[in-house]
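Continuing from yesterday's entry. The apo prediction looked reasonable, so today I'm repeating it with magnesium ion included to see how the binding region is handled. Same sequence as before; SMILES copied from the compound registry.
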Amino acid sequence: MLDKEGVNPSDESLEPMTDWMAALADHNARLRQQHPNEELIVVFDIDGTILDMRHMVRHVLLAYDRAHRTRAFAGLSVDDIDVHENRVGELLARLGLPEVAQQHVLGWYLDRRWSPEAVRAAHRPFRGVLDVIRWFQMQPNTRVALNSGRPESLREETLRCLNELGADSRVRFESELLMLDAQPLRKDPGRAKLEGLRTLRARGARVLAVIDNEPEVLESLRDADDTGDMLFLHAHTLFESRHSSASSVSGERYDLLSLADRRPLPGHLSLVWEGLESRDTLQAFLEAPVRWGAAPLRLDPSGRLVVRADDYDTRAWSRSERALEPRELVAELADAGKCLRVELTEGGELVDRALDLLERSGLPAERLAFHASIEQLGPAGFRHLRWAFPESTLQMPADFLAPLALSVPERARDLLDMFASWGVSRYQLDWATAQLPALIGFFEADTREVDLRGVPDLESFLRAALLQPHSLTADFRFPQWCEGELLRADERLLQLRELVPACASA
Ligand SMILES: [Mg+2]
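Holo prediction written out below.
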């Protein structure tokens, strides 16, 4: 797994100097309003903007040690590299290498830093940048172009590696939107970027923003902008230009929260509010712009049907327990026009009792879903549910399929066919599952629906939404919404409404 935790090495502080992502979101909203039907393009530089080049520098220096059986760079970490990739000589001097060795290492480095092997090693994205790119790629009529000073000869390698990294965020880069330097011998990457931008413009694209880590490049691109449309953003990583750009908005962190806060999440996403177990939670759910709620059902020790997630070994029964009544829950949801996902904690009698309740509830089948695991229900239990409510969604947790789906997909597909024959129509995956994007891709390629759950905080919630599952299950008690000024439930709901207005109809 690649280190995606890489942060800007140039400053101890991780706070953005200005909220550049918010500025980008505002500018995007404004331009979209002015040109509702036009294609908008966001242009990213690659090296030092998307990719953290310190990894490439370290890789080539360690390769020097390996090839020469030296230990000049033993223990060198990425954080030790605090110079731009074009100024490695300064680093070598500071590391105290003898003059002759410095020259030898520098020659080796300059010869190899653009080798395909080094390019592969250099591909480590800054944290969050691929989520930001994915967010733009999901906006209607919006595309992301890459404008780089890399030579044209690295086109294939660049695309291959960026797309390998992008797969983790479901990002895809296209060759037609990759601008490279066709005349690298003139050694003027700034000129190449100017031409890249002109080429994009000449195709009729409206460029919304340009993001680059070189202030001088941004200045020259700005001078050439005769549209006034473009926002110039300086990725304040390691840069070579002497001056920082006074006329660009500068920032250090690709913060999806700042970006998405200003605009709702794109796409159609069905949200499920889980943990309907108490009156308070039910009340909050009834007021929330979320249509689906999930409630766990089980039988208490006296055989009564109750709403309760914990079993009686985990949390002992007490005489003071006042569980939410299933009948009351169902009636309230039916009245409010909400939908219910019943989480069955066991099979057998519980299923019969739950079906009996639901058949008399007035909730139509399309507003009902069921969730249960194989070991709880078995094939017969799932078939029974499907027979009783043919129109409802029938879901099972499917993380156990991950190793099979990613190594022997045809066998995993056989199992999915079997589950489908029982009536299962959606598969729940946990946010913590390894290789989740690839797994979602597998289910999607097999046209199976996916529900995601287990997101720990608001940022993960947004990132999960960018993976485009069919539904996203959460308790909406994100730390950011449960502290300080956002403690109040009504404010939390307001935030939720702003974030995902689409969910009201989903
Ligand atoms: Mg750059």
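Comparison notes:
- Residues 54-121 form one domain.
- Residues 45, 47-49, 212-214 surround magnesium ion (CB under 6 Å).
Will overlay with the apo model tomorrow.
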